[in-house]
Amino acid sequence: MPTESIAPQPPLPLRPEVAELEPSKIVALWQQGFGRDDLIPLWVGEGDLTTPQVICDAATKALADGHTFYTHKRGWPELLDALDGYHGRLHGVRPEPARLSLTSAGMNGIQLILQAVLRSGDDMIALTPVWPNALAAAKIHGGAIRDVPLARRADGGFTLDVDALDAAIGPATRAIFMASPSNPTGWTASEADLRAVIDLCRARGVWLIADEVYHRFVYDSAQPASAPSVLPLIDPEDPVIVVNSFSKTWAMTGWRLAWLVHPPSMGPAFDSLIEFNTSGAPAFLQAGALAAIRDGEDFAREMVERCAAGRELVLQRLGAMRRVTLARPEGAFYAFFKVDGVSDSLAYAQQILERTGVGLAPGIAFGAAGEGHLRLCFASSQTRLATAMDRLASLLDD
Amino acid sequence: MPTESIAPQPPLPLRPEVAELEPSKIVALWQQGFGRDDLIPLWVGEGDLTTPQVICDAATKALADGHTFYTHKRGWPELLDALDGYHGRLHGVRPEPARLSLTSAGMNGIQLILQAVLRSGDDMIALTPVWPNALAAAKIHGGAIRDVPLARRADGGFTLDVDALDAAIGPATRAIFMASPSNPTGWTASEADLRAVIDLCRARGVWLIADEVYHRFVYDSAQPASAPSVLPLIDPEDPVIVVNSFSKTWAMTGWRLAWLVHPPSMGPAFDSLIEFNTSGAPAFLQAGALAAIRDGEDFAREMVERCAAGRELVLQRLGAMRRVTLARPEGAFYAFFKVDGVSDSLAYAQQILERTGVGLAPGIAFGAAGEGHLRLCFASSQTRLATAMDRLASLLDD
After folding, report:
1. Which of A82, A239, A249, B200 has its CA 20 to 30 A from that of B131?
2. Where in this chain does the record put each Aminotransferase class I/classII large domain (chains A, B) (predicted)?
């Protein structure tokens, strides 16, 4: 044992994968605008409604009833049963509780998936533009990202090019990350698209990570309850994992509650991965999640209607501005629009924030394919959106 | 695009590090006993008290006030300030909020630390017997574990052998995981022990992960408020990260709230790592955490007194049983005792559960050095513990 104390040494390096992580560009902007009185925050993926009372009441009651102890890691059996039924009602298939794992956020679920499947040196394909956080998580695990941009339609909207996806799969490709409905583009895969991607994953031995957190947010559709899901199209042991969340449908972004649908054989792996990360979501919050599934359907429909109205307003107002190119988003709750003459979307979002107090997310945050664009969340009241449009007009319609 | 559907293929393999994970032996036992009417669960690390009212009320109010949106990833500034003051009161040093990160459980915090520092192929030293979950997290990240057993004193208690620790550090050693007060042994490092370990980490360029979640649970001590902490002994940029938690001190095991004290230079890394995992703890739960720090001191003292009484009862009753060897644990809230003639502690814990309804954790769950032992959590009422002692006597005092 040393008898004389050793002086402090220079800091030890972090893992390069972590030292090189870039902070989210949306978060940086969020911090810039935090506390500004006239801020209209349309940059993050959440609406302006608080969680419905029936959900809060259930969590409050569970807390008062003493549900403050450790609980089931993958979720209350009762909650998993309820989720099983929810999928049955929406998609006509019940995945069975053995395929369900509750996680502490959709992002947390993606972390667990990547820990299960992505080896250091593997790569993950991302259909871009896409919400960047899943890609950052892959980098944390030593993965590399291959961008496959969605193809552009003549009207500025997005479409899937399965051949490009196929061509991008290399020997180190381990997974495809696909969000449908997509944040930020609103692109929503058709059933034929989904079948083609599933076939590709089967044929090439690649995992499909299917982000369906915006599944309820579809518009102009003959099937209003949900976007097409991979669930009715797969066998339980197909290499497909669905990420879903309570956040968007039930205004529960702050609750950090989500769920995965995975092959039943992965249950033990998720048991362990959850145990060794958050050890499961708080029991009394799970009571809120159960109320969302059982008693939250009216709110879910109201939420989607509210977004449909927000979308119409934004399409009419923003879509008519001189410098804006905006296609109708089929799903999710964002307008992802191109601004004529803008090549640095982060600087432009900062300028808009500075001059108008409207918070928008820069397109570059969603990958190189998003540069020149801005993302606006329309999950807000008509009044708020109209005010934002008035302010934006000074810059975008000049 | 394929025109004919591809048939399902055999399941893809998981990462070997994850496929090989063993489920926690405590969890397996917990599942065995779940729902048994006469169960006395002394196997997991939580007491029998629900979270104090003042904490539940604060969370309930925050929920009612609409704190259901995204929030600061590393914790509310107000909460970090309160934690800063808490450390000042306990240890005489305020680490500053830039060194504090709120996490979604102590286990979640350990995951984030390992993601930041442990490269695949590195190894982590663990002072054993020790709570196994941190070691499992290291394995998930491709790390290997080097056991350094605590040395045994003549009375059966545990002590630190710094030379053994020094000798165990190899070229691939990246971190030492040290829990003090220790789960399961109750071993509590002296200030001299801590200085020696810190010096060793400085000299050898190794991270110290200092698990201080049982910091309030010390007995027979002239300094009753807290076990010795590394915090007053380090420079901010020393390679030392403290893990602490709301779980034990404030009966909040089910809330999944904890915090890290880390070098200020690691703040951006933890910003990102939290963003890309749970994206932060729920805002309204943070209100509960704030109440714990501000208004929870009476409960914390009551909790420690309750454990002190539980410890006395267990030492007297269990310690006197014919087949039991039990040293006085200096800290934490466990009796970690050897049973004469037992070489398979898991089978023996199952037998005890089967025959008496008392749930104990098998020593093997805490590493090879724990085999032949059982762990009993004494954070319970006198009545409950006395009943458990009566039942255990039939096996352990025969």
Report:
1. B200
2. 40-392
